[in-house]
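Re: folding output
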Amino acid sequence: MDTVVQWSIRGFRSNFEELKLLLNRSQSAFVTLQECRLGEGPPRGGESALLIRNGIRFSEIDLKTGLHAAAATISLEKTLTVCSLYLPPNSPVSKISLAELFEQLPKPFLVLEDFNAHPRVGPGEE
């Protein structure tokens, strides 16, 4: 694995052709995607995905969480757990829900996420 690819894709279907180009050119063992918008209507489900290259052994992790997350344990030179996580900008996330997610991930793990760290702008601070 030469690279790790993380992409806030902002719509899986609308960027499918670009995703195919990326996958064909990338030597990455896996790609994490956020803002996939796989559900119908406004974003609500299917917001995070983990794509793993053919031929790589992996085991999907059935996460018990209300967060938009997908995870798998991947067998490369060493075994690694990878988690794709999406935290929507207007949805509060508790430290407890993040801690509960992290507890479900076998170590060592790597979490790739679109953190949506938008600064709050007050009046006159534009």
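--- second protein (sequence, then structure) ---
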Amino acid sequence: MENVTDRLSNPFGMTYPCERPVPGYGDANAHFHVVGDHPGLHGGADAGVPFTDCPAADRLQRALAAADLLAATGTPPEVADTYLSYLYPCADGDPADGDYASAEPQFDAELRAITAHVLLPVGERAIAHVLETYTARPAPDDLDGLHATELRGGGFLVVPVAEPATWSGDDAERLVARLREVRGSDYRREADLGRFLPGGDSYFVR
């Protein structure tokens, strides 16, 4: 199924439990969904766009652009088959566990509406949440050790991304290389139901 909308910011008209939301941004039919933590950590409080207006966001944007997941960096970035969102999208201070819980239904609904094939959780909380919720894998103690690896499960391919503010050495280059490999592979998780339809035309679903 294809989402029909030209809106880049909050394409599904989600409502959020706060006065200053930083809603999801990007292609509503994206194959790649970048999942961050919250605006206080990964930016966007001023622009209202995830992963903007802070050094960690700039670093991540440059890597995504090098891997052709962004057509151009900036505020806002020019997306390319990519969607950006947060576990907690509110720019009202550091969230508590209960705040994440209150925002989780909207996050889950949006993630399932996008139906991306590849999830890129950024930072420890996002990595742990995506693994436990969408792959049924327990989160290991060393979450940073999963940086730029590939994990499959639950209908998604997951490529964890270590917290960009702490990248060192070749962390950025490893992420770019991994994403280029993924883009060059058959990463889609689809089933062809065309055999059940008259005429035999292909009909792919997630």
